[in-house]
Amino acid sequence: MTRTPHVALLAMLLAAPVASAQGDEVPFITTPDNITVAMLEIARVSKQDYVIDLGSGDGRIVITAAKRFGARGLGVELVADLVRQSRDNARKAGVGDRARFEEGDLFKTDLAKATVITMYLLPEVNLQLRPRLLCLKPGTRIVSHDWDMGEWMPEKVLTLPAPDKTIGLKKESKVYLWRVPPRAKGERCSGVPTNTPSR
Around 162, how many Cα atoms within 13 Å sit in the side-chain half-sphere? Predict the structure, then answer.
């Protein structure tokens, strides 16, 4: 069966090496601007928040969080050229003091400071990250573009038009929201999801 170019590209991306502790790259696909805003809105980002974007690409999520919502944040990106571009973009946007970018492995990044985690990664990477995310401070909001977390059920899912999306046949995106669930006093985190949405 002949594949259309978009289907072939999506298949190629899904077959590509995923991020790991060894530092394999996740392909950089730009998040459309309207989806960037929706990701931050679904998490109700405000000036009290510290946003960490895993695989931050050109920096647009952290920069938008700072410029439009008044938050502070950190973008973590493996590709040095993208980190330099992000820092330049933040400076041009006037938020260089609130939007930081670091070259690094997202699996080795300290996430404890985050009140919001955002990501647009491959599904396998989401599942590799899930145990770490579940062990963050209860109430931390996790937002993913397009990919879920397996049996960790989201609190909310939005399906939105994405006319600028560069992959896939449908010009739409899904945005998922989770909150790290509370733990009983003295309970240690197991990194195992519950079967019901966290509230």
Answer: 25
For residue 66 the two structure tokens come to 């700072």
Distance, CA of 172 to CA of 158 (rounded, Å): 10
100 is in which domain, residue-wise? Answer: 5-179
Residues 6+ apart with CB under 8 A from 36: 60, 61, 64
Q: Which residue has the higher pLDDT, 8 or 35?
A: 35
- Look at 22-36, 136-150, 154-168 and tell me which has the smallest mean pLDDT: 22-36
Q: What is the CATH number of the domain that holds 118?
A: 3.40.50.150
Q: Give all strands (DSSP E) within the chain, no chain letters.
A: 50-54, 72-77, 99-103, 116-119, 141-145, 156-161, 172-179
> Quick check: is 184 in a domain?
no
Number of structural domains (the chain) is 1
Q: Which of 92, 48, 45, 98 is nearest to 75 (CA)?
A: 98
CA–CA separation, 199 and 143 (whole Å) = 14
189: in domain: no
3-state secondary structure of 173: strand
Joined together, the tokens standing for residue 170 give: 């449908």
